[in-house]
User: Fold this.
Amino acid sequence: MASSAEPAPGVAIQQDRVPDVGVGELGRRLWSIALPVLPVLAAEPVYLLVDGIVVGRQGSGELAALGVGALVLLVLGTQMNFLSYGTTARAARLHGAGRRSDAVAEGVQATWIGLAVGFAVVAGVWALMGPLTRLLAADDDVAARAADWLAVAVWGIPCILIASAGHGWMRGVQRLRAPLVLVAVGVGVSVVGCVVLVPGLGPAPALGLVGSAWANLAGQILMAGGFLAALALEHRGSFRPRWSVIVDQLRLGVDLVIRTASFQITFAVATTAAAAAGVTSLAAHHLAQQLWTLYTLLLDSVAISAQSLVGAALGAGLAAHGRALARAVVIWSLGLGASLAVVTLAFRGRIADVLAGDPDVAEPLTVALVGIAVVVVPAAVVFGLDGVLLGAGDAAYLRTTTVIAALLGFLPVLLVTRYYGWGLTGIWWGMGVFVSIRLIAVVARARGDRWVVLGSRTPAGTGRGEEAA
Assistant:
């Protein structure tokens, strides 16, 4: 489909060089990427669940310390997802333009960023480890144990970022099986290591909580090594840093980091609002968040697929094909969201009983499940169009609208909810407002032309006054 001849910057093509493709065929292409991506997205939550079960058998103090340490790694790793999303957008455009070698080269530069940022983060965490764990843990003993765990596990941050860069360029060139295998091997090693090292099975020493950290690190090192090997085998050019490319990637990354931070701040405030309503409300909120995380993984798999395909279409100069993909993404995302809503509403009582166990927790959880069912439908469209716009490199627009939705929508409702003790009802009203504002923003953007910029360069990755070419 790709051609080596590129269109003039930002010029829409009236008729693509491909025949019209129906929604069904476009859906098949979307799911051909989304389905292999989904297990990769789910691997980390599954491992954290197993890790928590194994460590929890050592005692509540160890489990609490693991929760504190894992929260630090989760926040840091999530903030750095620009290496995955940004690299996917840039590599996909180059791949669509028939420049596969340049697309892979984006992975080289993203890997340099991952190494530099990763070791800088390690240094920062080591410098602040004691105060950081004491801030998050009310108990001094829990804080000390969390610091012991974090002292080992934090060395996995550079590995996480190397893997993020690897996911980015591989999704950009639509190479999907290798990441799935690498993640499966890495998580498998971590799970086996955790099961063996924490209690000390067989000849292995009983390391307790720190054994979890070593198992986690071993899997991440193996995974990062696999991504580095794949990059070395695929790339044919120089491995030296190219500062102009790195600066462009970081420029795109800043928008994505700000966007991610707005999510994390609002979700943190939501937790405080749930806590203000009581212990049962906080427990129900935690369970609802875990279910929402599962739903967002399903929705994000379609969004990531949209990034790859839309980026490739625009890189190849196929404007109408990019728009057709956007329409297909909306249809398939909407269908997925509606399915999740129906299942959640139909089985909300049973889901609440299974997740909560305690009737006092199940009651407020049922309220949250109704909120999830209502919100997941418009959220599915938001996720899908987020993927389309990220694939087009329109990260600055998504940054701005997400921050506005958080500051003017979600946060005011959460603050009122915390003050009046509305609990989960108020939290999910706030989430509904947050999603609604974002829905209006992404639909308005997708209906216009400003995101349809053709050529191999991502618009967000160009310098001031420079056109995408």
Notes: Residues 20 and 422 are 51 Å apart (CA to CA).
